Amino acid sequence: MSSLRANSLTIEYDEFGDRSAPAVLLIMGLGTQMTAWPESLCRGLAGRGFRVIRFDNRDVGLSEKFDGAKVPGLVRWRLMHMLGIKVRPPYTLADMADDAAGVLDSLGIARAHLVGISMGGMIAQIMAATRPDRVRSLTSLASTSGAPGLPGPDVQLARHMFSRPRKATREYLIDHTVKTWRMIGSPAFPVSDEERHRKASEALDRSFYPEGYRRHLAAILGSAGRTGLLSRIGAPTLVIHGDSDRLIPPECGRDTARRIPGSQLEIIAGLGHDLPESFMPQLTALVARHAAAADRRDESSRATATPAIPADPVIEGSSGPV
Predict the structure, then answer these.
(1) Tell me: the pLDDT tens digits for 74-108?
(2) What radius of gyration, in Å, describes the C-alpha atoms of the chain?
(3) CB-count burial class (<10 Å; 0-12, 13-18, 19+) for 139
(4) What pTM does this model have?
(5) pLDDT tens-digit series, residues 16-55
(6) Continuous segment of H or E residues that includes residue 14
(7) Domain 2-151+210-301: which CATH class?
(8) Where are the domains of the chain?
């Protein structure tokens, strides 16, 4: 893993595959480190002919933190929203989309296939709508359009996720994370608690920074919905959503697909709001097939747009070209 400068920030990143291959940029979700993208997915896509880049969003993992930037608590934020009091977060999802574009800039990549999960899907949607020249294709995974009236998270899950752990001991934090992952998990792609415990331990050892989680949440709450932007997306788009997602219900994925012209929708039976290892072969195939098809269409359109070679001259009075 290495670091780079993007959008005037230090960003930690990792990459897999041939650097001359078409790039796939993986954008992670709320308060979650890039290592939550399974290596099997990264290596699987690299094995199918892509250069795969994952990175820590600002304020999480090993990327630059916004120490001291305060945000209201969730309850206070909701109250202020109900009263019509506008609260400006330290940064917005659009700022984070600029970070993603900055990662490409720093690596010298003109255009990439974007794959974003949850909040990362929101960031990818914004980038696809506002920087179409940088986007080969878009895959929005377990995300939402942010349209008013869409169903919210399961009440019990939301109460658990948005509550602060009562203790800050290592084992309590790990157990809290394991419980969260169990609640958002996928019935059709089971993961053992032992595996969850191992991954939670690794994540905690790499970085523990709950302040960034709260500021990420503020960026979501303080950013406008993307309903107006989605209709502007011209890149080939694949929307993937689990029918067992308790955090961002599947209707949110269906609404996203309806609002993006020409998009494809894949509803995965028994998938929740996680990235279980047993789902990675299917996800790898979906993303690779979508990206490869987008590249073929792009090559075809460029070939069609190439000026035709002038025909050989015809000498007047002859029977054909000379």
Answers:
(1) 677 667 766 767 778 899 999 999 999 999 999 99
(2) 22
(3) buried
(4) 0.91
(5) 999 999 999 999 999 999 999 999 999 999 999 999 999 9
(6) strand 9-16
(7) alpha beta
(8) 2-151+210-301
Continuous segment of H or E residues that includes residue 220: helix 210-221
**DSSP letters for 163-191:** SPPS---HHHHHHHHHHHHHHH--TTS--
Give ∠ CA 198-60-3 in degrees, rounded to 5.
100
Structural contact between residues 237 and 297, judged by C-beta atoms closer than 8 angstroms: no
Distance, in Å, from the CA atom of 261 to the CA atom of 157, rounded to the nearest integer, reads 32
* Coil/strand/helix, residue 297: helix
**Going along 130-268, which residue ranges are E strands?**
135-141, 237-242, 264-268
Exposed/middle/buried for residue 188 (C-beta within 10 Å: 0-12, 13-18, 19+):
middle
* Contact criterion met (CB below 8 Å) for 273 and 142: yes
Query: What strands lie across the sheet with 51-55, from one edge to the other?
Result: 2-6, 9-16, 51-55, 23-27, 112-117, 135-141, 237-242, 264-268
Residue type, 33: Q
User: What's the pLDDT at 37?
Assistant: 98
List the structure tokens of 122.
């929101």
Strand 51-55 and strand 9-16: the pairing is antiparallel
